[in-house]
Amino acid sequence: MTTKIKTLAKTFSVASIIFLASCAKTPVGCFTTDKGKTAKVNEEIQFNASCSTDADTYLWDYGDGSTGSGSSTKHKYSTAKIYSVMLKVSNKSKSSSISQDVTINP
User: Fold this and answer.
1) CA 103, 78, 43, 87: dihedral to nearest 10 degrees?
2) Structural contact between residues 67 and 88, judged by C-beta atoms closer than 8 angstroms
3) In sequence order, what are the beta bridge partners of 28?
4) Do the beta carbons of residue 84 and residue 99 sit within 8 Å?
């Protein structure tokens, strides 16, 4: 009888973990910059993803081959052009991405 109760308890625990993981909300990425959507070459830009929801990790792709992490980060561009900046936000079980263009002027 004790073995059956232990087996049922283990089964219930595993099922509960699976259920709770499937109930996790999908994070929604959102970010702003302190320069708006334009900046100048070699001007530091502050990227801020504090408007994102249900996220634990933040991965940045600045569009120029450089990457970063964290909800707030800084980056400089050395060449004038339009860059597509991508933010990937994740939690324990789900992730999503958002991108915005940033124009770098001479």
Assistant:
1) 60
2) no
3) 53
4) yes
- The reply to whether 52 falls in a domain is yes
Burial of 44 (0-12, 13-18, 19+ CB in 10 A): exposed
Contact yes or no for 63/84 (Cβ under 8 A): yes
Tokens of 36: 């708006």
- Taking 50 as the threshold, does the pLDDT of residue 77 lie above it? yes
Q: Decide if 92 is inside a domain.
A: yes
| Higher pLDDT pick, 20 / 26 | 26
Domain coverage including residue 76: 27-105
Question: Is residue 15 in some structural domain?
Answer: no
Q: What is the pLDDT of residue 3?
A: 64
Domain count, the chain: 1
Where residue 69 falls among pLDDT bands split at 50, 70, 90? very high
pLDDT of residue 15: 43
CATH number for 59: 2.60.40.10
